[in-house]
Design a protein that fits this description.
Radius of gyration: 20 Å
Order of helices and strands: HEHEHEHEHEHEEHEHHEHH
CATH topology of the largest domain: Rossmann fold
GO biological process, one term: 'de novo' pyrimidine nucleobase biosynthetic process
CATH architecture of the largest domain: 3-Layer(aba) Sandwich
Strand order of the largest sheet: 7-6-5-8-9
Structural class: alpha/beta
Helix content: 25-40%
Mean pLDDT: 89
Function: Catalyzes the condensation of carbamoyl phosphate and aspartate to form carbamoyl aspartate and inorganic phosphate, the committed step in the de novo pyrimidine nucleotide biosynthesis pathway.
InterPro entries: Asp/Orn_carbamoyltranf_P-bd (IPR006132), Asp/Orn_carbamoylTrfase (IPR006130), Asp/Orn_carbamoylTrfase_sf (IPR036901), Asp_carbamoyltransf (IPR002082), Asp_carbamoyltransf_Asp/Orn-bd (IPR006131)
CATH class of the largest domain: Alpha Beta
Number of domains: 2
Catalytic activity: carbamoyl phosphate + L-aspartate = N-carbamoyl-L-aspartate + phosphate + H(+)
Low-confidence stretches: 313-320, 322-331
Number of helices: 11
Largest sheet: 5 strands, parallel
Subunit structure: Heterododecamer (2C3:3R2) of six catalytic PyrB chains organized as two trimers (C3), and six regulatory PyrI chains organized as three dimers (R2).
Strand content: 5-15%
Length: 331
């Protein structure tokens, strides 16, 4: 795997490989010494042009647990704030010997541009670009679903037959898009639920069932997974719904809707949550909720992605078990 830029072009086999490798990484995180020597001598740059807490920290933890050297770069306080271009930044990273670049950018397509530009030889991993995609979030969501629905070790399994309802601000959500393509590749049935104003243009042509009523979607789809999305007010430049009270009443996962879910259904949220708007506190804190598990699993999934991108020679098939011959090593 040369780069990880999206899930739309990710095959089922490649997705399963990442998820199964994440199982190996998760197993190492149960040990007293959590670090592996796999990426010792590699340099990973976290190149974040947008604010982030969970994603940046998760990637940093993942790289460090693989023994890579990590450089954290933020646009604020850097030469970017003085007008430096993405090309100049990339060439600077090339000059310092970056092996991998984890990039978050407000412009859709920026990671793909970086990967194809020839400005840098490093593997590029998309940590979210505009309203386009956020592939590792979708992978950690799928990893969490697979573990919750099928058990702690579900190597080789896809999500065939699983019903997933994604609710909220679909129009501005790169998480929703990445989940749609990945979950379809893994065999799940995906439904979107949102007011008309928060469904993206062209969604009717995508492989998804669209609903405008959450109550109807819960009744018709009988979901195994309900994924609530944050209202991204920072990306909104118009009134997409009358007020927060109406949104919570019509599209929020409140206590009554939580009680109507099937016994096996789980509740997900990529965070940060707006409690009382898209999700009630009872739903967020219930045993059905996977919110904190998603954060934990994110480290294992990002370790897997970095390992598959950066271990061994470019284009070489990596050892499928990164722990098999180095169990006793520490770093």
């Amino acid at each position: 795997m040369r780069h990880l830029l999206d899930t739309r072009t990710l095959s089922r086999d490649d997705a399963i490989l990442i998820l199964d490798t994440a199982e190996d990484m998760a197993a190492t995180q149960q040990r007293e010494v959590k670090k592996l020597p796999t990426l010792r001598g590699k340099t990973v740059v976290n190149l974040f042009f947008e604010d982030s807490t969970r994603t940046r920290i998760s990637f940093e933890a993942a790289a460090k647990r693989l023994s890579a050297d990590v450089i954290n770069f933020t646009a604020k306080g850097s030469s970017v704030s003085k007008g430096e271009s993405l090309k100049d930044t990339a060439q600077t990273l090339q000059a310092i010997g970056a092996d991998g670049v984890v990039i978050r950018h407000p412009a859709s397509g920026a990671p793909a541009r970086l990967a194809s530009s020839g400005w840098i030889d490093a593997g590029v991993l998309n940590a979210g670009d505009g309203t386009h995609e956020h592939p590792t979030q979708a992978l950690l969501d799928a990893f969490t679903m697979r573990r919750r629905l099928f058990g702690a070790d579900s190597r080789g399994r896809d999500l065939d037959g699983v019903s997933v309802v994604i609710v909220g601000d679909i129009a501005h959500s790169r998480v929703a898009r990445s989940n749609l393509w990945l979950l379809n590749a893994l065999g799940a049935h995906v439904s979107f639920v949102a007011p008309e104003t928060l469904l993206p243009y062209g969604a009717r042509t995508w492989p998804v069932t669209n609903h405008h009523s959450l109550d109807e979607a819960l009744r018709v789809e009988r979901p195994d997974v309900v994924m609530m999305l944050r209202i991204q007010s920072e990306r909104m430049h118009a009134a997409f719904f009358p007020n927060e009270r109406e949104y919570a009443r019509n599209w929020g996962l409140d206590d009554a809707r939580l009680a109507r879910l099937s016994e096996r259904a789980i509740v997900m949220h990529p965070g940060p949550m707006n409690r009382g708007l898209e999700i009630s506190s009872r739903a967020a804190d219930s045993p059905r909720s996977t919110v904190l598990e998603q954060v934990t699993n994110g480290v294992s999934v990002r370790m897997a992605a970095l390992y598959l991108l950066l271990s061994g020679e470019r284009g070489a098939q990596p050892d499928p078990d990164p722990t098999s011959s180095r169990e006793g090593e520490t770093a």
